[in-house]
Design a protein that fits this description.
By secondary structure, the protein is mainly beta. It is about 5% helix and about 50% strand. The two termini are about 55 Å apart. The chain folds into 3 domains: about 180 residues, Thrombin, subunit H; about 70 residues, Immunoglobulin-like; about 80 residues, no CATH class. An 8-stranded antiparallel barrel has the order 23-24-25-26-27-28-29-30. Strands 5-4-1-2-3-7-6 form a 7-stranded antiparallel beta sheet.
Length: about 350
C-alpha cells in the first residue's frame, strides 16, 4: 500500500497524499485541501504558489501541470505527469475498504510519516463504535501535521484520509471516492477482499426436502449439530450432499459477515444418469424437472418411456408414453440407489426395477 503514498510540499506546508488513478502519464493524487490551499477561505480558493509531489522510489519531485482541484471535506486532487519509465515500484490498486466493512477493534495506522513514506507506529488508530456504526479513531497525540492528506490503513487497505487542521480527523474513503468522481477524476482503487469471520448457520428443510446437508466452508467441512446448525465462516460455503445421488438446492451460499444466520435447504434425489435394469441391462434416465425419459429398455417391447412424474419421492405417479405412443401409467418408488414400480401399458403390466 505504501507504493501509492506520496509526499506533498506546498510553499511552507508539508503533507501526504495517495494515488487514486492514472490517465496516461498523469497520476491523480488525493490530499488534504489545507496542505495545498493555504488560503482556501478566499473566493475563489488560492492554491500555494509552489506545489511538489514525490512518488515512492523516485528521487524526482513532480509539479502539477494545472492548479489542484478543491473539494468539500478538506479534500483536494492533484494531477502530476510521472512517466512510467521513472516508476520503480508497482502501484497498489486493491486498497479501498469501505467504513461499513470495518470491525470494531481493528488496528489502524497512517500510511506515511512527516517527510517519510513509512507506516506510523502500531496503536496510531483503531476502529471503535459498533459493527453497524464503526468509527475510525486516531489516538490523541499520535497524528502530526506533516501527515495530513495521508491514507489511514487497516491490514486490508485504505479506510480514509487523515487530516490535522482542526484537531485529528479522518474522512472515510467512501467520501474521498465520491469527491473524486464528482470532480471527474479517475478512481482505480478497488475493494480489497474482506477477511472471513466466524458465523453460525442453522439449516431448515424446505418443502419436499428428504435430508439436510453438511457445510464445506472456508474453514473446511463441518457437520451439523443436534439443532441442525454449523459453526462456519463468512464467504462462499458449499452444501455437502448427505449421500450419493442426492443434490441440494442451493448448491452453495455466500454468507455475509453476520454472526447468526438461517437457510432453508431442499435436498432431493437426482434420478439422472446410468442405471442397471434387472431385465434390460444398462438404461439411462434423463430428468428435467418433472419430465423424465427412460431409455435403453432393449429387452422389452416398449424400449423407452417419456413423460411426467408427479409427487414427492419416494412415491411418484407416472403419466408417460412409449416410443410407439402407448400410454403408460402407474406408480414408481424412487430412492437414491433404486427405482422400481409397475406401469400399466395397453392393459399389460410392466415391472420396472433398476439399481445404481
Amino acid at each position: 500500500m505504501l507504493n501509492n503514498v506520496v509526499l506533498v510540499e506546498a510553499d511552507a506546508e508539508h503533507g501526504l497524499g495517495f494515488i487514486i488513478g492514472r490517465v496516461g502519464d498523469v497520476l491523480w493524487i488525493a490530499t488534504a485541501a489545507h496542505v495545498v490551499f493555504p488560503h482556501r477561505n478566499r473566493t475563489p480558493p488560492q492554491p500555494a504558489s509552489r506545489i511538489q509531489v514525490q512518488v515512492r522510489g523516485v528521487p524526482t519531485w513532480f509539479s502539477p501541470e494545472q492548479p489542484p482541484d478543491p473539494a468539500s471535506n478538506d479534500i483536494a486532487f492533484i494531477g502530476v505527469r510521472a512517466p512510467l519509465a521513472q516508476m520503480t515500484t508497482a502501484l497498489f490498486w486493491r486498497s479501498n475498504v469501505q467504513v461499513n466493512e470495518l470491525t470494531p477493534g481493528q488496528s489502524l495506522r497512517i500510511a506515511g510519516m512527516p517527510g517519510l513514506i513509512a507506516y506510523s507506529p502500531s496503536g496510531t488508530g483503531k476502529v471503535s463504535g459498533t459493527p453497524q456504526f464503526p468509527v475510525i479513531e486516531i489516538a490523541a497525540g499520535m497524528g502530526q501535521s506533516g501527515q495530513s492528506g495521508g491514507p489511514v490503513a487497516s491490514a486490508e487497505g485504505f479506510v480514509g484520509m487523515y487530516q490535522k487542521s482542526e484537531g485529528d480527523r479522518v474522512v472515510s474513503i467512501g467520501i474521498v471516492r465520491k469527491a473524486a468522481l464528482n470532480a471527474g477524476r479517475p478512481w482505480e482503487l478497488l475493494p480489497a477482499p474482506l477477511p472471513n469471520v466466524a458465523v453460525r448457520l442453522c439449516l431448515t428443510a424446505a418443502a419436499e426436502s428428504m435430508a439436510l446437508p453438511d457445510i464445506n466452508g472456508p474453514g473446511g467441512t463441518v457437520k451439523r449439530d443436534a439443532a441442525n446448525c454449523v459453526n462456519t465462516m463468512s464467504g462462499i460455503n458449499t452444501l455437502v450432499s448427505p449421500q450419493l445421488f442426492v443434490l441440494c438446492d442451493p448448491p452453495q451460499v455466500n454468507l455475509p459477515r453476520e454472526p447468526q444466520q438461517h437457510l432453508a435447504v431442499r435436498c432431493y434425489v437426482d434420478p439422472s444418469g446410468a442405471w442397471m435394469s434387472k431385465t434390460d441391462g444398462y438404461a439411462m434416465v434423463a430428468a428435467r424437472g418433472g419430465i423424465w425419459t427412460i431409455e435403453g429398455l432393449s429387452q422389452s417391447k416398449f424400449g423407452a418411456f417419456t413423460g411426467l412424474l408427479i409427487g414427492t419421492p419416494p412415491t411418484l405417479q407416472a403419466q408417460m408414453r412409449t416410443l410407439s405412443g402407448s400410454v403408460a401409467t402407474g406408480n414408481l418408488t424412487l430412492a437414491p440407489r433404486r427405482l422400481q414400480g409397475v406401469l400399466l401399458v395397453d392393459g399389460q403390466s410392466f415391472s420396472l426395477d433398476m439399481e445404481r
